[in-house]
Amino acid sequence: MRIVVTGGTGFIGGEVVDRLRETPGDEIVVTSRDPERGDRWGGRVAMVQAFAGDPLSLGRAFTGAEVVVHAIQFPNHPVEDPARGRTYLEVDGKGTRVAATVAKNLGVRRFVYLSGAGAGQGRPQPWFRAKDMAEAAIKETGMEYALLRPSWIYGPGDRSMNRFLFFCRYLPMVPVIGDGKTTVRPISVKDVARCVRMRSGGRMRRTRPWSWADPSASAWTRSYAPCRRSSAGAGRCSIIPPPS
Ligand SMILES: NC(=O)c1ccc[n+]([C@@H]2O[C@H](COP(=O)([O-])OP(=O)(O)OC[C@H]3O[C@@H](n4cnc5c(N)ncnc54)[C@H](OP(=O)(O)O)[C@@H]3O)[C@@H](O)[C@H]2O)c1
């Protein structure tokens, strides 16, 4: 089976490719804007150039594929750069819509999408609007699909939790997103990748979005506890919720 992983050079995509490569016989194709840059698989996966929102390059990458795993995100996110088209709506929203349409037209059987926690609720913020647009477009194609909605993903190479670990270690106080009561459920990138692998193969028994942000999730402030324990500066940092 030929499986294409868009954004396969990224934090999550890379781990997904590692897991997918464990299945003998599958052919894994990784898209990148710059496939000549070199990759961690040393030539053992096919690298193909493709750009978000570009039907031609995506079409070349998806030709002959049975499954597409879509994990593109613009560089330097979450900081948008509209002048360079690096926004959630452009890259994740419209870009996913194009990718799903191209995949459908080329006969791709299943589309696995890295959505995110909180999607599907009609929230107005750009990230949620982009995820909602992307999910709706995928459903409209009629392909089999898996919409995965992880919360905070950590692991080797992550630029999010590691940043907060840095804050915990070196700053006298750490920022809290929202009022500190918003729930998050950190999950290892390895578990996400295992889940993607499960959703990529075999029969599709479940099509409703798969979310890890369940009621057992921790409030932001509690999620800091392991960071603080593991950091040299534990005890020095205090958590300052923003004014309500
Ligand atoms: N990280 C999290 O905690 C988290 C949580 C929930 C959901 N997600 C979702 O998971 C997905 C992947 O996130 P990530 O953290 O793995 O992102 P990432 O590490 O930043 O990787 C994104 C990949 O997208 C590719 N890319 C960037 N701009 C592109 C463009 N214009 N055209 C084509 N490819 C482009 C890059 O590949 P090249 O540089 O090789 O082109 C890069 O490998 C996103 O949809 C994100 O919303 C992430």
List keywords for this structure.
single chain; two-stranded parallel ribbon; alpha/beta; Rossmann fold; globular; 244 residues; 7 helices; 13 strands; binds NADP nicotinamide-adenine-dinucleotide phosphate; 7-stranded parallel sheet
Lay out the secondary structure.
Blueprint: E1 2-6, H1 11-20, E2 27-32, E3 46-49, H2 55-62, E4 67-70, H3 88-105, E5 110-114, H4 126-141, E6 144-149, E7 153-154, H5 161-170, E8 173-175, E9 183-184, E10 187-188, H6 189-200, E11 210-211, E12 218-219, H7 220-230, E13 238-240
Parallel strand pairs: 1-2, 1-4, 2-3, 4-5, 5-6, 6-11, 7-10, 8-13
Antiparallel strand pairs: 9-12
Helix pairs in contact: 1-6, 2-3, 3-4, 5-7
The chain binds NADP nicotinamide-adenine-dinucleotide phosphate (NAP).
Describe it for me?
There is one protein chain. This protein has 244 residues and is α/β, with parallel strands linked by helices. 35% of the residues lie in helices and 19% in strands. Strand 4, helix 3 and strand 5 form a beta-alpha-beta unit. The radius of gyration is 18 Å and the shape is globular. The N and C termini lie far apart (52 Å). The model has no long low-confidence stretch (mean pLDDT 87). The structure holds NADP nicotinamide-adenine-dinucleotide phosphate. NADP nicotinamide-adenine-dinucleotide phosphate binds next to helix 1 and helix 3. The site of NADP nicotinamide-adenine-dinucleotide phosphate (NAP) has 25 residues, from helix 1 and helix 3.
